[in-house]
Amino acid sequence: TIVGVYLEEDVIIARGARYFRGPKAYYDFTTHRSVMPNAVFRTIQEQRDIPVYIRAEEARTLSDREMWFRNAKVSTSDFYSMTYHIGASRAYVKDITIYEEELDPKTGRVTRGVRLSEQQFSARLVNTTFNVRSVPILYWPWLQGDLSDGNSALRTVRVGSDNKLGFGVDTEWHLFRLLGLIRPEGFKGGAELGFHEDGAVGGLNLEYLRDNFSGYAAAYGIVGGDDEDDFGDEREDISAPGDRSRVLWRHKQFLEDDWQLQFEFSWQSDRNFLEKLF
Q1: Which positions make up the signal peptide (predicted)?
Q2: DSSP-assigned states of every residue in 151-208
Q3: In whole angstroms, what is the distance from residue 196 CA to residue 170 CA?
């Protein structure tokens, strides 16, 4: 009985729309595990109809649903020299698509049957870098998220002049991916970080909507800002703290008999904070 096979010269291991490709590989038929050096993994992100590539020094399939990569580069580019990519020393990807389970009468193993949902992959990346033309510009120790929403924690990067803080760089992030967490159903969060001539700014925001409650929370601040505010000819040189911040939380709770409980908490470091930065 053949339990495995070793292959060389342009090897392709395919399952549906996804495949591994590399110079050589070993595949175990009994456990459906494989190992492939210098591998390229490709799948289609159905929600946006774009390809996702993972190029790695080593790729392993751990089961029908689990994959592991060493020194991986994640991108949506067909080209080997990518304009943008995410690097990771280790990457673990799991197929979380819902399938109907079937029993193989020959082996007695439970196998995947008809697909019952859109194809989805969860991913966990360690020692991640965000790269532009192979130059790392940002580092984060770990990322975790759903590849159906894209593969990066970074949403946008803006470089330019702000009429309140001067020239600088602003970034926006997916909050749960940045924290290495799976986003709970009904929750959406973001993070902002910027560095300008007149100080560093940062903030977090969270929106949530569930069957019996909803709300919004945000926190923003600036460090190393000017010690004076200028709001025009009649309001010049107003003394201001260099470090400033604001916290806001609004919550609505749905109770029995059509009752509702609503409350809001708001705090800011000084009276001119909102006028200065918002």
Answers
A1: none
A2: S-SEEEEEEEEETTTEEEEEEEEEHHHHTT-PPPTTEEEEEEEEEETTEEEEEEEEEE
A3: 8
| pLDDT tens-digit readout, 104-157 | 777 676 666 666 666 778 888 999 998 888 888 888 888 777 665 555 677 777
What's the pTM value of the predicted model, to 2 decimals? 0.58
Residues 71, 60: Cα–Cα separation, whole Å:
12
Instruction: Give the residue extent of every domain in the chain.
Output: 1-152, 153-278
In angstroms, rounded to a whole number, what is the distance separating the alpha carbons of residues 89 and 136? Answer: 13
Specify which residues 248 forms β-bridges with.
218, 266
Tell me which H or E stretch contains 275: helix 273-277
| Residue 13 burial (CB count, 10 A) | 18
pLDDT one-digit tens code per residue, 182-224: 778 889 999 998 888 888 899 999 999 998 999 999 999 998 8
Amino acid identity, position 216: Y
Instruction: Please give the CATH number for the structural domain made up of 1-152.
Output: 2.60.450
Tokens representing 233?
């000819």
Rounded CA-CA distance 63/120 in Å is 16
Hey, which bits of the chain come out as E strands?
4-15, 18-28, 33-45, 50-61, 66-75, 84-95, 99-103, 110-115, 121-132, 135-146, 154-162, 166-174, 187-196, 199-209, 213-223, 228-229, 238-239, 244-254, 260-268
Q: Are 165 and 278 in contact (CB under 8 A)?
A: no
Q: Is 226 helix (H, G, I), strand (E, B) or coil?
A: coil
Q: Nearest 5°: phi and psi at 154?
A: -85, 125
